[in-house]
Specification:
Elements (H helix, E strand, L loop, with lengths): L2 H11 L8 E2 L5 E2 L2 E2 L1 E2 L5 E11 L4 E11 L3 E6 L8 E5 L3 E6 L4 E6 H8 L5 H9 L11 E4 L3 E8 L2 E8 L5 E8 L5 E12 L2 E15 L2 E17 L13 E2 L1
Parallel strand pairs: 10-18
Antiparallel strand pairs: 1-4, 2-3, 5-6, 5-17, 6-7, 7-8, 8-9, 9-10, 11-12, 12-13, 13-14, 14-15, 15-16, 16-17
């Protein structure tokens, strides 16, 4: 598997806010404002299945994900009978990948990754994808539209237009559409099967689709994510060591 594929797999999964935001069902609309609560937790651990598809490949794998809120995301991929083939450590300023199949590792900062994929990629975007949160922090000045099934929070960040679809029935974030003008880059995130994890709710099923310009073509990548287990912890370890014989790519 190419280095670029590993990067896409972790980034899209995982796949811009200074804090996490979770929509609550009670008093969601109050005096024409949206009311949010911010869950307080320190560590989260998930058992996850990931299916990755692009124009060339269709890959499925199991993953163990550990999060220290707003600080560290640790991932281990085990597609073959529990044998780890890749590990990632994502911090607020960089992402490091270890590819055990090819005995190599890659180090990226988010500015380089944003330029590579033509999207503003950062730690909190990836954390938001995992937790099913809005990728940009909600501001009271944001425009809000109301339809039969959704509240739509409309945001702008530089060249990016972001529409957040909040289900009127469930009062949960169901979909996020991100587009970049005048380019044809577009990301759609759909969140389903919300379940309680002690003090807050996360989607146990997510579908992320990324369309991005590649020369004269528009390429598509899809990632289907399903958690089989998610639990809070009082403390977690994040073991990450690059073997000396591994080559940096």
């Amino acid at each position: 598997m190419s280095s670029r594929l590993w990067v896409l797999l972790f980034l899209v999964f995982a796949s811009s806010c200074s804090r996490k935001v979770v929509v609550t069902g009670r008093d969601f609309v109050e005096h024409n404002k949206l009311v949010f609560s911010v869950p307080e937790f320190e560590y989260l651990n998930t058992k996850t299945k990931i299916q990755f598809r692009d124009d060339e490949r269709n890959v499925s794998t199991s993953a163990n994900i550990r999060i220290k809120k707003d600080s560290i995301i640790w991932m281990s991929l085990t597609p073959f009978l529990g044998i780890e083939v890749a590990r990632a450590l994502i911090t607020t300023d960089s992402l490091v990948l270890i590819n055990r199949l090819n005995r190599e590792y890659m180090v990226y900062d988010f500015d380089i990754l944003s330029e590579k994929f033509q999207f503003d990629i950062n730690y909190h975007l990836i954390q938001s994808l995992i937790l099913g949160n809005m990728p940009l922090e909600y501001q009271e000045r944001n425009e809000i539209e109301s339809s039969k099934h959704f509240y739509i929070i409309k945001q702008q960040s530089g060249p990016y237009s972001i529409d957040n679809y909040i289900s009127r029935e469930l009062m949960k974030l169901q979909k996020v559409e991100v587009s970049e003008e005048p380019k044809k880059n577009r990301m759609v995130m759909e969140f389903k099967d919300h379940k309680e994890v002690e003090v807050f709710t996360i989607p146990f099923s997510s579908l992320i689709s990324l369309d991005y310009e590649h020369g004269a073509e528009v390429k598509n990548t899809e990632v289907n994510i399903r958690h089989s287990q998610a639990e809070l912890a009082s403390v977690l370890q994040f073991p990450f060591e690059i073997p000396s014989r591994y080559v940096k790519k």
